UniProtKB/TrEMBL annotation:
The species this protein was found in: Arthrobacter nitrophenolicus
Protein name listed in UniProt: Uncharacterized protein
Membrane as UniProt keyword: yes
Transmembrane segments: 81-100, 112-138, 159-185, 191-211
Superkingdom as given in the UniProt entry: Bacteria
UniProt keyword terms in alphabetical order: Membrane, Transmembrane, Transmembrane helix
Length: 234
């Protein structure tokens, strides 16, 4: 009897389903991972129906534009590069579509992880599947917080847009940024490439942490109004 404050069970309907911030992160970076997987697949298709040199090969061997990325290494269990490339394009497209539409589903992150592993196995490179796995891990096990989000959660939530921008800048700077630099000014320094890699993946991980913090705060807001120090923007 009585209305009063409801406990965690009142939010069980939304438990495990990413909030708006998380869906945005997974959707945007999932599509970028898918596009990179398609790029690997196109390089393999152009090599034709030949066997790769081994399980690990280059998607764009001898292509000057991709020299800075070491020809885009990939792994495949398919002994035919044409078939591997077609499979990479198809799986990458599924991964991108699922990243955008599937995160509201109960097993959304799990299937995203499965598609990422499949993309790795059919020749979609190493970076795109790794990014997919990171996104799947970040979006997993989202539920109602056991207690009110503290200062760390609020601080993480506040840096969400900056972390998102940094991760996006790093990823786009890596691909197609380094390819464009290679074509226009010559190969960029290794320090630039590794710096962009760190910015891309570090930014994504920080963005996921910030998005999780926002989800916790939004979940808690269902029963307790947000404190004035936290904005209401998604």
């Amino acid at each position: 009897m009585g209305s009063g404050r409801q406990g965690p069970k009142s939010y069980s309907v939304a438990a495990g389903k990413p909030g708006g911030a998380m869906r945005k992160v997974v959707g945007v970076f999932g599509v970028l991972a898918a596009m990179a997987g398609v790029e690997h697949g196109v390089g393999e298709i152009l090599q034709g129906p030949v066997a790769p040199d081994g399980p690990v090969f280059r998607s764009w061997p001898g292509n000057e534009a991709f020299e800075v990325l070491d020809g885009e290494p990939a792994l495949t269990v398919i002994p035919n590069l044409l078939a591997s490339g077609i499979a990479s394009v198809l799986v990458a497209a599924l991964l991108g579509a699922w990243a955008v539409t599937g995160m509201r589903r109960r097993h959304g992150p799990l299937l995203l992880a499965g598609l990422s592993l499949l993309l790795l196995a059919v020749g979609g490179g190493f970076g795109p599947p790794l990014l997919g796995l990171i996104l799947a891990a970040g979006a997993s096990r989202l539920g109602f917080p056991a207690r009110s989000p503290g200062a760390i959660s609020h601080s993480l939530a506040a840096v969400y847009p900056w972390a998102f921008g940094a991760g996006l800048l790093g990823y786009l700077g890596l691909v197609p940024g380094t390819v464009v630099l290679q074509a226009v000014w010559g190969p960029p320094a290794e320090a630039v490439v590794y710096g962009l890699m760190m910015l891309a993946f570090g930014g994504v991980i920080l963005t996921l942490a910030a998005a999780r913090a926002r989800c916790r705060i939004e979940a808690w807001q269902k029963v307790v109004p947000l404190p004035p120090r936290y904005g209401t923007a998604a």
